[in-house]
Design a protein that fits this description.
homodimer, alpha/beta, 2 domains, two-stranded antiparallel ribbon, 11 strands, about 35% helix, about 20% strand
Chain lengths: ~375, ~375
């Protein structure tokens, strides 16, 4: 297997982009990515494209053309909310195989506009007409976690407070306001115990990364970031979740195990984490599933500040899905963007001191089951 | 790059499957694939799944569970009508990279049922309300080819006659009737010069293949089939097609060039071809674009019987999309199934004598542009 490095990353600001087309968002993410390559890159060096979008398009073959890379091969990946991460994973495989030297990954989604919004509604009507909306599916896990381990709503609120604090420091975050435990607890109830501030917003945005063979990365930058671990797992639940599925995501655990094995690293080695906090409970159980604390101790983990900026394992310095936003196809790629910048020391006020090893975790959940995807990146040598 | 081999292939009969769910089709294709492995395979050897579907699902994580491979990683690929071929391509990359030893590719589509049929209609209303339906988009190319090169409607009809002849020999084909040039010319006009018998049907079905590292293929079969070439290209046209785009598909030419280079082979080396004949004109121009004859000579190529069973380069012995059918996500994988069986001498009455090297060609077209994908397979040594 050839070693693979990320040499450039970029993204649009996340938010509501009614004034921009999907094409505009893709263009903006691409341009910021090209500009991020320290020694510059001739776009002609890019040989293939992977495109992650959940619902914003079918035919993806205009994507290379949107960014001036006419006639390049492009593959669209879709893997529920983990879409962007899987586009990144498949792009890595093509370089690891020696097929291409330099490839581009783009993730993009317009959640708030046609045709995506219609399709969301379509799905919602088909599957979720018996209370199994997204907040409902996660609320079930929250109440079970509270029942099993004594987790408190205050601890869920602390996840929201932490991520909104970080998001307020991130110029590209959808929400840039601080909140408090009290405000989070009093926010409008969506699905008990999840209030409005426990839920991520509907966000538009795009993100991109350029991946190349590690042995040619120096041509583009002296600060490349190596891709050292990749893991993906699925499971199913339908209407009958196991105890394990009620208090966490076994797919996260399995994907993390694979990624750590491939990287020859352990959770304690990780300096910075971007994880899938679609709801506060998701972040809390993911501390456990990823191995940063024991099952049931997620509430304590956030309460003790261990996931905060300055803590032992800062989680979601970008603001996470809760504050930065969650444009499905873009989310996984945006997590790569944040870790890329963190391990290169480019994250400004939200910089994690001396971060060398970063982990991204993405998750897709539907009533039928879930998918978990973990990536481990390491500052290049 | 590690060498990659196909060790098993299977598919459902193609047709209208109102009585079967998408899950049933996936199960049937999987079981026939497992059973096709000469020395047997423990399903636990399969480490990951690639799933190709254009419109029949979002969340693909139940797919491994459908076939008893719970918790395996699965990635959904979508690339317009070339979806199944690109799922195969990405699966190959993961094995070439050394990430997995044995992986499964499944392509499936229910074209005639919900939710797929609604989505087709949705797309049709959005994009094709000014005559740019699929038949319309291809009819434009047919009239131009007739104008430029003197191609005749009779020659288009000969493609239909040939492929329906082959389809009648294929127990898994959607249509199993012979036709004549006269009948094809008199069939109901859809978009001039394309009559009903120039058009492929709306078909349901699934197909699958098992890919492994070539160096362990002997564990499973003494007759594995090597993947020696892969090429993918895109282009765009919007409302302004170039002369080249009007009389063919530059994406086919580019993808074929890449695949032939990787395989170190030339068009004259190919013994059997499965190509994308969504309409008769598509097959005719693809002879030219793939390099089996010169540009403009496609009509003569079919008229002289050079693409027939027994001809110099038999094309679509399965019946192709015109007779076997075109369940979008399954089509590319089903082309692999046919070539796999042909080079192993398992194709019964439609066997191409002593076929050793086979090529599959898939194409995706929308008003915005096109995607071409070529795969070259070779009987294992």
């Amino acid at each position: 297997m050839l070693e693979v490095a990320v040499i450039g990353c970029g993204m649009t600001p996340f938010g509501e982009h009614y004034g921009k087309s999907l094409r505009n968002l893709v263009e903006d993410a691409y341009l910021s990515t090209i500009r991020s390559v320290d020694k510059g890159i001739d776009p002609k060096d890019i040989q293939a494209v992977w495109y992650g979008t959940l619902a914003s398009s079918w035919a993806s073959f205009p994507i290379p053309d949107f960014v001036g890379l006419s006639q390049l091969p492009v593959s669209r990946l879709e893997n529920a909310c983990a879409t962007g991460s899987d586009a990144f994973r498949n792009a890595c495989f093509s370089v690891m195989a020696g097929i291409y030297d330099v490839v581009l990954v783009i993730g993009a989604e317009k959640m708030n506009d046609e045709p995506c919004s219609s399709l969301w509604n379509y799905q919602a009507m088909e599957n979720w007409n018996i209370g199994r909306s997204m907040p409902g599916v996660f609320a079930l896990r929250a109440t079970r976690h509270m029942h099993e381990f004594g987790t408190k709503r205050e601890q869920l609120a602390m996840v929201s407070v932490k991520n909104h604090h970080n998001g307020a420091l991130n110029p590209r975050a959808h929400f840039r306001f601080e909140t408090t435990v009290e405000k989070a607890l009093k926010s409008r109830m969506i699905a008990y115990p999840l209030g409005l501030l426990d839920c991520c917003p509907m966000t538009d945005g795009a993100a991109a990364a350029i991946i190349c063979r590690a042995d040619i990365a120096k041509k583009y930058t002296d600060a490349s970031v190596q891709v050292v671990g990749l893991g993906l797992a699925t499971d199913t639940s339908y209407g009958t979740m196991t105890d394990e599925q009620l208090v966490g995501f076994p797919t996260t655990t399995k994907a993390a195990k694979e990624a750590f094995q491939m990287a020859k690293l352990e959770p304690k080695d990780v300096d910075v984490v971007e994880l899938h906090d679609c709801f506060t409970i998701t972040e809390l159980v993911s501390y456990e599933d990823l191995g940063f604390c024991k099952k049931g101790e997620g509430g304590k983990f956030v309460e003790e500040g261990r996931a905060s900026l300055g803590g032992e394992t800062p989680v979601n310095p970008s603001g996470g899905l809760l504050a930065k936003g969650h444009p499905t196809g873009a989310t996984g790629v945006a997590q790569i963007v944040e870790v890329f910048e963190q391990v290169r020391g480019q994250s400004g006020k939200r910089q994690v001191a001396d971060a060398e090893i970063g982990l991204t975790h993405n998750l897709g959940v539907a009533p039928e089951g879930s998918v978990g995807l973990v990536t481990i990146l390491r500052r290049g040598t």
